[in-house]
Amino acid sequence: MSRRSGQRIGLGFDVHRLEPGRPCILGGVELPHATGPAGHSDGDAVLHAVIDALTGAAGLDDVGTLFPDTDPTWEGADSARLLGSVLERVHGAGYRVVNVDVVIATEGPRIAPHRAAMRARMAELLAVEVDAVNVKGKSLEGLGALAGGAGVAVEAICLLASGD
Ligand SMILES: [Zn+2]
User: Fold this and answer.
1) I need a surface site. Which of 52, 106, 124, 143 has the fewest CB within 10 A?
2) Which fold has domain 2-162?
């Protein structure tokens, strides 16, 4: 199908508040931190942004439409499961993941010590090599509503290529 040929790029963004007593799961990895992302699912803003980048590139519905927060099926859901479901749809649409790049902006948990684990975990979830997934942490320089560790904002970009 000619519509499926070539490469497609997708951009994703997500933001979650960080709240005490929540596990701090980002990029499919649990970070040791006193606060974690609030949300209907496990709140993994990194995987949510990656999901939106994938759906954007593949021309699928966005994450809120695919997994509505009014649907109890997804209450407390492991975002890795959501990503797996989206990846199946991406493959079903005739695409494979070329690479994914992620920026995590937060003054909550430190990202640098966990970059390697996040890359490995996301590569596993996306069925690609580790060097096809990158992650960078950014400080917010004490600016804005997310300063002081109040939240986490994530941008993700991905490239898809047609199946073979
Ligand atoms: Zn989210």
Assistant:
1) 143
2) 60s Ribosomal Protein L30; Chain: A; (3.30.1330)
